[in-house]
Amino acid sequence: MSEAGTPVFSVRDLWKVFGPKADRIPGSEYAALPPAELRERTGCTAAVRDVSFDVNKGEVFVVMGLSGSGKSTLVRCLTRLIEPTSGTLAIDGEDVLAMDTTRLRELRRHRAAMVFQHFGLLPHRTVLDNVAYGLEIQGLGKAERRAKAAELVEKVGLAGLENRRPAQLSGGQQQRVGLARALAVDPSVLLFDEPFSALDPLIRREMQDEVVRLHREEGRTMVFITHDLSEALRLGTRIALMRDGGIVQLGTPEEIVGSPADDYVREFVRDVPREQVLTVATAMRPPTSGEGENGPALRPGATVSEAIEAVARSGDPAARVMEDGRLLGVVDHACLLGVVAGAGGGPGTREVTV
Ligand SMILES: Nc1ncnc2c1ncn2[C@@H]1O[C@H](COP(=O)(O)OP(=O)(O)OP(=O)(O)O)[C@@H](O)[C@H]1O
């Protein structure tokens, strides 16, 4: 269990198999077959294949993978929009698979709100009424829900547009309405299913910033599906990288980029500018005697690219990595260039010298 206490979601040995007699697949001789062979021999597709993970309170948990890797199926299983074939699943410690229909409805409406790519806004209602809709379902009085909705409309940057209808908004603005509506019920977790993939790049970036801001300001737990690596790296506290229904690697952006679990992940992250993801805590080396007196001070979480800027500005041969007044290590030109050149992510793997 994490420091944050009970995980928001706790998922163990989860399978979702589509096809005839799907429940005979998990745990059988067929379970380890590659997808094409499984389909050929059984007519089944294992969309989610023996997956286990926790979503911790306050984190942005990104589910990333190529089309067909199982992202949507996995996230839909979390609230049983798709019924898992086998495994266990809990939200805030409560068994989701044991919930009856009333409890499940409550889960989907209040505890785990979903933000979709197609916003599903009510076309004849105004922005304000669309946001208030979730509160109406909750049984709040009219004045109260309009006041709360107005607050949320402002929070997502739509103040002044309260009385427009969805058709009078841009795609990004519609997505903000969807976001405000999901936030209205104050859920313990927000689930995003590729919400920004239909938006143009600039608006998409704006919406990503919005998610980062909401996360920073409210510490809200989020599960975010994307097939876009740069989006995953920008938003994710941790990223689960899926392939053929399984999780090939689960880790922080830095772990995924700096220590890919296998060749598949390595290929996936090949073009990522490593200096923007890897931190000085990874790139640093122990100080030699006399070092550590001078040079700019950086926190361990500073990126290598921030360190390069600091060293270039100060003209010192190295920067110091400090925490609570303690010297943890130093990053000199060789450490920093080693990261840029891709000469390994961790200590002891650098080959580049200057
Ligand atoms: N209802 C279904 N019946 C049969 N197979 C399905 C069904 N839904 C999904 N699949 C299969 O399960 C696999 C995972 O699909 P899923 O939609 O979860 O992937 P995804 O990673 O979300 O893809 P995308 O990014 O394209 O949305 C795919 O091979 C898909 O064809």
UniProtKB/TrEMBL annotation:
<dbReference type="GO" id="GO:0005524">
    <property type="term" value="F:ATP binding"/>
</dbReference>
<dbReference type="InterPro" id="IPR051921">
    <property type="entry name" value="ABC_osmolyte_uptake_ATP-bind"/>
</dbReference>
<protein>
    <submittedName>
        <fullName>Glycine betaine/L-proline ABC transporter ATP-binding protein</fullName>
    </submittedName>
</protein>
<dbReference type="Pfam" id="PF00005">
    <property type="entry name" value="ABC_tran"/>
</dbReference>
<dbReference type="InterPro" id="IPR003593">
    <property type="entry name" value="AAA+_ATPase"/>
</dbReference>
<keyword id="KW-0067">ATP-binding</keyword>
<dbReference type="InterPro" id="IPR027417">
    <property type="entry name" value="P-loop_NTPase"/>
</dbReference>
<comment type="similarity">
    <text>Belongs to the ABC transporter superfamily.</text>
</comment>
<dbReference type="InterPro" id="IPR003439">
    <property type="entry name" value="ABC_transporter-like_ATP-bd"/>
</dbReference>
<dbReference type="InterPro" id="IPR017871">
    <property type="entry name" value="ABC_transporter-like_CS"/>
</dbReference>
<dbReference type="InterPro" id="IPR005892">
    <property type="entry name" value="Gly-betaine_transp_ATP-bd"/>
</dbReference>
<keyword id="KW-0813">Transport</keyword>
<feature type="domain" description="ABC transporter">
    <location>
        <begin position="33"/>
        <end position="269"/>
    </location>
</feature>
<keyword id="KW-0547">Nucleotide-binding</keyword>
